[in-house]
Design goal:
The protein has 443 residues and is α+β, with helices and mostly antiparallel strands. 70% of the residues lie in helices and 7% in strands.
């Protein structure tokens, strides 16, 4: 999945919250403007109060500064709260939709996909996407509007120094771009390993009786420890790049800062600029470089979120191979027989499990299918509720091919008793009445 497709899918998830996002962006524009105003206020502080000794400005400036911080704080609360709510809502929606989609996928998908991998995608991957949406996005957009406001200030103060700054500002962003691709690749690897570890954990806990019976505790400990070491190595690789990105950005920005101090200081000494103007410019420039440095940290979180989003949407894009036919009808109550005619079935192409299989079971008959392990007994049982479709022939109930009826009407007439006892973490009543929730307590 390329970036344009990924962002298009993320946009569809965010669309229901467009109004809140617009309000949040208005709040960020206001906060960005007030950040720029704070930098600009350094100029009258130095020139009017300390240099010209303007007593009136001494009384007005602190009050103005308090008002700036108060209004900025109100809008900061507004956009932070709104974006956090949007982020939490998106995560709720994604988890619900992915879970609902999983319930629509065929049994074959769950046979070839470890349960831990699916749990990891719904829980871990969605949580990583939440970090990108709720936290990194807040900082990124806020810093973007702050940068725009601060650029206006530095160009207003001294356009020549501003152009020098813009020469070095893109240089400071180079490590962010270079390391961003590495962060995405590392994050994808990390999430894959987390899925594998979760799968092993789920399998070991579910099969603890077997583990203990065969004295495999030590082996399972070593396997899990190895997975944890792999995850740690991946995280340390990401940490290495993240820790390197920040000082590189700071050093490249420092080169530009040193030249600006030298050139701007020369302008002040020659009388071409005032100390207040230069200090206001320098303050705005320092505030401008801070968001750029912050992006090096935020970028890692964003890349993790994008890698997680790719895995989430890849899962959502899987289409079920058991589908109702166009114009499928409800199956009438069972009255005559179940009949398999020249049925063939294969899990994998070229490896048939059933071939030219014929069977008819009339209503009221009791049938026991006996055979060796792997002979197709379970497969036969799985074909009747359409957990799988026959690859050859037809399976009919009362003369109706089950591929032409709705899945709900078919499965509502079947009862399944498995070899394994499965109890859901719910009440005894709910477990007994599973699939028939409308039953009364007396029934």
């Amino acid at each position: 999945m390329n970036n344009s497709e990924l962002f298009a899918k993320i946009r569809t998830v965010l669309e229901p919250y467009t109004g809140r996002l617009v309000l949040a962006m208005i709040g960020m524009v206001v906060v960005g403007g007030f950040n720029a105003l704070q930098a600009y206020m350094v100029q009258p502080l130095l020139d009017e109060i300390f240099y010209k000794r303007n007593a009136r400005m001494l009384n007005l400036l602190p009050l103005g500064l308090l008002l700036v911080f108060f209004v900025k704080g109100l809008f900061y609360f507004m956009y932070s709260f709104l974006l956090e709510k949007v982020g939490q809502s998106v995560i709720r929606d994604l988890r619900t939709r992915v879970y609902a989609h999983l319930n629509e996928l065929p049994l074959s998908f769950f046979h070839r996909t470890p349960a831990g991998e699916l749990i990891s995608r719904i829980i871990n991957d969605v949580s990583m996407l939440q970090g990108a949406v709720s936290h990194a996005l807040i900082h990124l957009l806020r810093d973007l509007f702050s940068v725009i406001g601060l650029l206006v200030v530095i160009f207003y103060m001294d356009w020549r120094l501003a152009f020098i700054s813009l020469v070095f500002l893109p240089m400071a962003a180079v490590p962010i771009v270079v390391f961003g691709k590495k962060f995405r690749r590392i994050s994808t690897s990390y999430q894959t390993r987390i899925g594998e570890a979760t799968s092993q954990l789920a399998e070991t806990i579910a099969g603890m009786r077997i583990v203990k019976a065969f004295c495999m505790e030590g082996v399972e400990k070593r396997r899990f420890s190895g997975k944890m070491q792999e995850i740690m190595d991946i995280l340390m690789s990401e940490t290495r790049y993240r820790c390197l990105a920040h000082p590189l950005v700071e050093f490249l920005g420092g080169i530009g800062m040193a030249l600006i101090i030298w050139f701007g200081g020369s302008q002040v000494l020659q009388g071409h600029s005032t100390p207040g103007t230069f200090m206001a410019f320098l303050t705005a420039l320092i505030m401008l470089y801070e968001p750029v440095k912050g992006v090096s940290k935020i970028n890692a979180t964003i890349q993790q979120g994008l890698a997680a989003a790719t895995r989430i949407f890849d899962l959502r894009d899987i289409r079920p191979d058991i589908r109702e036919a166009d114009g499928a009808v409800d199956l009438r109550p069972f009255s005559e027989s179940i009949e398999l005619t020249r049925v063939g079935f294969a899990y994998e192409p070229g490896q048939p499990v059933l071939r030219d299989f014929d069977l008819r079971v009339r209503k009221g008959e009791v049938l026991a299918v006996v055979g060796p392990s792997g002979g197709g007994k379970t497969t036969l049982a799985n074909l009747i509720p359409r957990f799988y479709d026959v690859t050859e022939g037809a399976l009919c109930i009362d003369g109706v091919d089950i591929r032409g009826v709705t899945l709900h009407s078919l499965r509502r007439q079947l009862a399944l008793v498995t070899q394994q006892t499965i109890l859901f973490n719910d009440t005894v009543r709910s477990n007994i009445a599973y699939g028939s929730q409308d039953r009364t307590d007396e029934e």
